[in-house]
């Protein structure tokens, strides 16, 4: 069963707990598509909101920041197949944005998924091999739509197929789920904060200039835009913070705070705390243990902190003092 949510419900129930597994900034890819005559399918997974320039035209017609196909599709639906940016994921819901598509928007969509660990096998799939995640649902023009399942899919998928009936345009598509990483030996040291290993930024004090989910991305990014940055604080004693659910309960050995590209706006200090909770609804009542005390940071640098605490942790809380920007947070350890 699936349901339609409001934007706030979707943020609270889906965005704050799961990961957009096809997003470009997570290395999601367009595998194939039925058509992209007016506008390219790759625009669907761009991280920034869509824009419109009504004066701009191309050889194909009016320019749109999204995916738009030809009119008069003779098939049931046009489609795009996405390869996840993570190894696999259980799926829970999606956002379909038809911004600026009015009179040429997709009248309806559905979402299907498949588990194919070898890309060469993908073209062998038939329609019967694609399993429904979100059934065919109507869409309206120039608006965001939020669809969610009652619960996560039992299977962990590697690819998804978005269908629009029969043709038209969609500006952005986000597909959320719970990351299932490649199986690791319990003795392997991995980054449990990484989104690739299931880390999720579940709560944050402020993300005015850059979102907290950027903290968990692979690599060191390309500029300040793909980090986490808060407003300038004006109140004495102010701090900003982010709570990260680790990909699995872990005994941490090292935490890395990277201020890459933040040169005049890095935090003056940071500290890191950890906790272990079985029910994430209890996170606001959790008891936190300091694993990295208040420590100075500097510009454009990876700061490494050795962790001596040997407790199993499910979440960490990174506090920046008083405010500023951080590019990445890493939490290396072994599975508890």
Automatic annotation (TrEMBL):
The keyword Transmembrane does not apply. It holds the Pfam family Allantoicase. SUPFAM superfamilies: Galactose-binding domain-like. InterPro entries: Allantoicase, Allantoicase_dom, Galactose-bd-like_sf. One of its GO terms (molecular function) is allantoicase activity. It is an enzyme of class 3 (hydrolase). PANTHER family: ALLANTOICASE (PTHR12045), INACTIVE ALLANTOICASE-RELATED (PTHR12045:SF3). This is allantoicase. It comes from Candida metapsilosis.
